[in-house]
Amino acid sequence: MNYHTRKWIKPEDLNPNHSLFGGRLLQWIDEEAALYAIVQLETPRCVTKFISEINFVSSAKQGDIIEIGIEATEFGNTSITLRCEVRNMMTRQTIITIEKIVFVGVDENGKPTKHGKTKIEYISDRLQNIDNPSR
């Protein structure tokens, strides 16, 4: 799993129990997963279709730094399925896991559109293919 995004837990991110508010964390996860889907499907129009059971394993406190990890697990005709894990950056303790987040690429009218992707692609590979089309 790749951990690309880090968040510093600040006072405005806390719930009345003085731990990270779950809704804030889910907002960050949805945004990070959407960005991942947009890059992988090469379309700016991706919508969240499904989020499976959310497992809160531990909490984060003010001052903690967390990392959001996303990995692609499946490609459909119009969708991409992701897995997410959030952990404490310093202790590596898992905070939350989500086994399945599905995003669908859509057209200008909001209708699902085929993307033709079958595997994870990295930006560096795409750029290399532009520079060397014979690859």
From TrEMBL:
PROSITE patterns named in the record: HOTDOG_ACOT (PS51770)
MF (Gene Ontology): long-chain fatty acyl-CoA hydrolase activity
GO cellular component labels: cytosol
InterPro entries: Cytosol_ACT (IPR040170), HOTDOG_ACOT (IPR033120), HotDog_dom_sf (IPR029069), Thioestr_dom (IPR006683)
Family annotation (PANTHER family): ACYL COENZYME A THIOESTER HYDROLASE, HOTDOG ACOT-TYPE DOMAIN-CONTAINING PROTEIN
Similarity annotation: Belongs to the acyl coenzyme A hydrolase family.
Stated name of the protein: Acyl-CoA thioesterase
Native organism: Chryseobacterium taklimakanense
